[in-house]
Amino acid sequence: MHDGLARGLREASKALDRRQAHMCVLNEACEEEAYKKLVIALCSEHNIPLIKVPDGKELGEWAGLCVLDREGNARKVVNCSCVVVKDWGEESQERSILLNYFQSEQ
Fold first, then answer.
1. Label partner for 1 (CA 20 to 30 A): which of 8, 17, 37, 65?
2. In sequence order, which residues have a C-beta less than 8 Å from that of residue 50 and are 6 or more positions away?
3. What number of other Cβ atoms are within 10 A of residue 15's Cβ?
4. Predicted TM-score (pTM) of this structure
């Protein structure tokens, strides 16, 4: 786990099963249907908000699975199938927006 995130299906499924997750982001283009079903089932079973994104490279960049060049552009981005937020970190406006969105969805 790095920076409050569990990256990849193995770390994410462990965090979801232990109910340590605040939020889960799943790559819709994941090739293994069984993995997607597992993550979706764990999220629904433990009432953990789930967001689906279409691109694994973009999710990998968001999760920090890349190298930044001198200009701050992402290089060598690694495809990521699933990311779980285990620790929100400091209070922020973005966090409040996400929490309000999740509450309105229920």
1. 37
2. 23, 24, 25, 26, 39, 40, 43, 44
3. 23
4. 0.74
Residues of the chain with pLDDT under 50: 1
Q: Which domains, and CATH codes, for the chain?
A: 5-105 (3.30.1330.30)
Amino acid residing at 86: K
CB 81 within 8 A of CB 55: no
Residue indicated by tokens 């990256």: 7
**Per-residue model confidence as pLDDT tens digits over 56-74:** 777 777 777 767 778 877 7
Q: Is 66 left (phi over 0), alpha (psi -120 to 50) or beta?
A: beta
